Amino acid sequence: MEELDPSEKLTTKAVYDYKLIQQALKHGDQKAYAELLHRYRESVYFTMLRMCNNKDDAEDLTIEAFGRAFKRLDQYTPTYAFSTWLFKIASNNAIDFLRNKKKSTSLSLDTKMENDEGQEFSKNIKSQTLDPEENIIKKQKVELLRDVVEKLKPRYRELVKMRYYEELSYEEIAGKLDLPVGTVKAQLFRAREFLYNILKNQESKL
Predict the structure, then answer these.
(1) What's the rounded Cα separation, in Å, for the pair 93 and 100?
(2) Could you give the domains of the chain?
(3) 4 and 65 Cβ atoms separated by less than 8 Å
(4) What is the pLDDT of residue 58?
(5) Residue 142 above 70 pLDDT?
(6) Across residues 79-98, what is the average pLDDT?
(7) Alpha carbons within 13 A on the beta-carbon side of 156
(8) What pLDDT, in 10s, does the model give residues 131-141?
(9) Could you count the other beta carbons within 10 Å of the beta carbon of residue 126?
(10) pTM to 2 decimal places
(11) Could you tell me which residues come within 8 angstroms of residue 117 by beta carbon, excluding any fewer than 6 positions away?
(12) CA torsion angle for 166, 172, 174, 177 (degrees, to 10)?
């Protein structure tokens, strides 16, 4: 990771962020990840909310933004503020999300279209109900995911189960484990990254 040049014209806040990044990368300091999350979560969330105008989407995009940033943290250079880099990642991800969402917008079953000869026809919409084969595949994926979760380290496995199986809020998890909410979120980011990497290596089994 690039060392901080004292001649760089960074604000005091940006210099502090850079020190947190060094702690996170060099020592795997979970508190450093949690503090970075705490410092920018709210501002990233409201930026996402302005872009997509949907609270649930904004929350998901915020989580994804930090997940992507933490995964690429070793690529950050102190030639500009961490906040600038983070918001660039968040904005680009949101733009991709909105573009894909627009493409996937389904047509109404009653929508009429015209062919090249001007004749009307109804657009065939794929049923949202899974056929038997798709149901089997879905069950296999769920079973595989549960197997993968069991391969996580105990602390990550517990967090994933509490968040996604028991559907507890971050605050509830923090209360049960006696941890700061920021630490819970930071560790869940890491757990999701581990899950993704394990699943990616097992795609051939699906």
Answers:
(1) 11
(2) 12-103 (1.10.1740.10), 129-205 (1.10.10.10)
(3) no
(4) 87
(5) no
(6) 91
(7) 17
(8) 555 555 545 55
(9) 6
(10) 0.53
(11) none
(12) -60
